[in-house]
Amino acid sequence: MPGTLKALKSTLLGKALGDSAQESERYSIKWGLPILSSDAISSVAYACEEILLVFVPVLGLLSFTPMFGVVGVIIALLFILILCYRQTIDIYPEGGGAYSVARDNFGPISSLISGSALIFGYVLTVAVSAASGAAAIVSAFPDLASFKVAVTIVFIVLLMLGNLRGIREASIIFGLPTYFFIVAILVMIVTGVGKALFTGTPVDIEVTFAQPAKDLTLFLFLRAFSSGCSALTGVEAISNSVPNFKEPAQKNAKKTMVLLGVIVFFIFGGVCLLAALYQVTPLSNITVVAQIAQAVFGSGSAMFYVVQIATALILLLAANTAYNGLPQLMSLMAAHHYLPHRFADKGTRLVFSNGIIFATVASVLLIIFFEADTHRLIPLYAVGVFISFTVAQAGMFKHWVTEKSANWRQKAVINGSGAIITGIVCVVIGGMKFTQGAWMALVAIALLTFLMMSIKRHYDGVSADLALSSSEVRRLVFRQAPQNHVIVPMQTINRSFVKALNYAIGLGGTIEVYHVGTNAAVTEKLKENYKELHLDVPLVIDETSYRNINEVLLKHVDAYANGLKEHETLTVVMPQLMVRKWWHYTLHNQTSIFLETALLGRKDIAVVMIPYLVD
Amino acid sequence: MPGTLKALKSTLLGKALGDSAQESERYSIKWGLPILSSDAISSVAYACEEILLVFVPVLGLLSFTPMFGVVGVIIALLFILILCYRQTIDIYPEGGGAYSVARDNFGPISSLISGSALIFGYVLTVAVSAASGAAAIVSAFPDLASFKVAVTIVFIVLLMLGNLRGIREASIIFGLPTYFFIVAILVMIVTGVGKALFTGTPVDIEVTFAQPAKDLTLFLFLRAFSSGCSALTGVEAISNSVPNFKEPAQKNAKKTMVLLGVIVFFIFGGVCLLAALYQVTPLSNITVVAQIAQAVFGSGSAMFYVVQIATALILLLAANTAYNGLPQLMSLMAAHHYLPHRFADKGTRLVFSNGIIFATVASVLLIIFFEADTHRLIPLYAVGVFISFTVAQAGMFKHWVTEKSANWRQKAVINGSGAIITGIVCVVIGGMKFTQGAWMALVAIALLTFLMMSIKRHYDGVSADLALSSSEVRRLVFRQAPQNHVIVPMQTINRSFVKALNYAIGLGGTIEVYHVGTNAAVTEKLKENYKELHLDVPLVIDETSYRNINEVLLKHVDAYANGLKEHETLTVVMPQLMVRKWWHYTLHNQTSIFLETALLGRKDIAVVMIPYLVD
Question: What residue of B is the nearest CA neighbor of A533?
Fold first, then answer.
């Protein structure tokens, strides 16, 4: 009952917006950048740690040199992706990213695969980012360690509420923290590098490592690379959200992508540099970034807490990236009949509420199952995102080769290289992380693809079923006054019943009032009261010894309906109480709502709901 | 939309039961005992551990002697409670326990306090028992340690499904494991004691304890006692569920209570004896019972796994106790208007489905918040249960003193002593556990009490609002044919629209077909198609540039309704698609359901739903 929670909704989410409010709900570069690139920027909060997590157990203090190799490759990959996606924005101003590209260039199946991969990736963005944000908070306030799952879920629910309020307000609420994080991390990098240069690393680290068991192998390098690729998730968010930018939307989106690349280069590179300078290694319950901040600023210092809070906030923004991209994508796919149509409906605040709620429920389930543990979630993450990258770039390549527009050769080379590189990365990640969780990602994406195909088949079937051919239209007969039969169920004689009965009498036709009695004395009294109404509408009563009133009523209605002739209709008229406070709706009408659904479902019966407003 | 999930429901829950199936859904002693006393019996799986958890950090290996003191007091308390509750069963054959007793003897406020305390206690029974069951499984299969929250939630959901199927099937599914557990533990006790007597304790335990820091103090003893009292929760379940027993229900319930006492005495005492003989102390990730089973049978032995699985199963049954008691209690309180009336409705399987679902949701939230950690949940637990014990016994005391029936003096002494003892225990637990979580329990119980008072006030207000005095009844006028206005919203011309329009025409009065257009070309085509129907019903069209069709439609209906004269009614007729598979309902009708609720809520508008069955 979406409408019944109206009052609660307007308190939490703000008043419903009028139609004309639509245009102003769009991003400038200033706000689009922090909201849509926070995923990639915030990745430093965990990607550096994930890389070290692979190297350190094997290489110990020798981990930092290969780490720079991995980081270099990842940043190079980032710039390739940015080049590729700038070309995508040119061709697809309406957003949709990998899904739209695949749909136009390859057809339904591959578009569904990339769409599923994107949906799965977005949900994991929410889960991983919220869990990492909670990890940052737990690093600063260790007393919260035993409530990490709850903290993560609270973060997700707050994001949901913020997004249900609508995107412009979201810009202001969610935009500032990215700048705050960028400044905090840059200050940390400058201070940290300066300190290391002029005074040496301040703490003499006395971690004793076992002598490296093995040398660096290609296998180890690829595993670390696969872990680090989680840093690249979210790059496609800008290209999927082009319609959310202010005009000129495409130009603004492309500028934003370049800015993203520059910022990630400095922040990700700088943090990894600090990790090497201060020889930080992964520990449980305190993140790598938190350890760096402790080493640079001192463990109880104000700046340590500033960095932790900034990290938590930008990670929430990263989760928010998905809250912007996912509902948009789902609405597009719903308009194509691959998802329930409700995902295409804008709510009272002009946002795709159902997509927002879906993102919340799915990510909370992941958080519960993986107990908000980032390290266990990340192996599921990158493979889906790289599947969609690959499909999108391959689609763009096909576009240039088919269209042969200006400069098509150069553009085809860029997107073609992008497709090959991301395809290779996809296989690497799938292989390296298969047993750790990538298999779950692949299964989930396959199931989602299958589900969306079934939904489409269903909608197509229903449309065909409902369609009228023009010859049928010519033969249609509208009856002027069919014989109508009306049943008015009654629990007790009160104002709402009287109103319903009055309406039923207005309908004309054969009317009966129907009551299910559970207590002989009460029934007797009711009969007397009914007589006092002096109506010529018969009162029909059935008795039952248990309180399964609905069941008895449905049987009676069934029997009545079975006795009808063709062209006679049966209508059941029921009162519905309307109350002022939203929570009062939890207290009423459950019987009439149940009966309405049951009646509509079982027989060809029209159901009339008569509202009665209670003061 | 409860009815839309019908097909899924009948797969998961079994077919709907007829009215006459009610009587057979009752317990014999043989099945009532395992289902209703599993909570108390299973308590050995954690109560012994909770006691040691208080003593061991302070007293080390000297913990076992005071442990027997605590266990002795708790078992004595158990027999006092059994004596007291046998007298309650005599007087209250309809169940309801503390709530009914307080209601009869003290009035609404204290009945609500004890009702709230019982509800809170039941929810914690589910949470604590499911979490302990998961702990038993994790002890046997340590690989699952990182999925403990998920395992716990799966347990709770399985219990919910089992209970929604109905209580007799529940007996058979859920009855056997208690006997299995009793046998497994008795075998363990006999083997363990025999081994200790004849061969000495098999393992030389070399745990090194710090020299006890302090002597046993009264404070320490009381803290351990407060922890151990979790063993007594669930004793009232039998007395609350008397109507679930076969006739003679009271006699059967009383016999079951005595059997419960005897079994707990042997099992609880025996396990504590083994803990002392084998000097087992609490560790994380392996329970005390698991450690005992390892010591007695060997750590990889079949019997070790048997004990762990039996423990997990009986703990699930203990959670199931609450699934039996809570919905019954909530239905009683709903019938008294303290809870939403839906809690008093029996579902298609003749169980109180809403109470079962409530128990699930509430306990899952607790599990997520406390990360399935038994030690953190237990401090919340016993205080609520002992509040209800105290109120119930005080109420019984008042009953005897007021009624002065046969043997009233003796009976008053028993219940009076019960009230004083449980009252003292209540204060002890509240004080000892206050900062660890008892404060949350007290706050929750207070809030629940307040909420239920508000609900009652609301229902009373609505009844008064709806009531018709006899003078009003005499003045009632039923209009024969009011002027009716009908709006039929149309998205497209198809079969379901034609059916709705046909019904609308049958209603008579002024009719219009209303369409919200978002695309000029589509609208033009629709107009042409409409003309082909050759109707004299006008087609009214509004245009909007965004897809907020519902909003525009509601505005139009509002304007129409505002223009009506008194005694004219406005009816909106909408088609509703009926589909064969339950999941197809997620794909349809969201617009008509939204509009129905919105229309009923905002204006005095009747809403007619016309079903159209899609094949």
Answer: B473
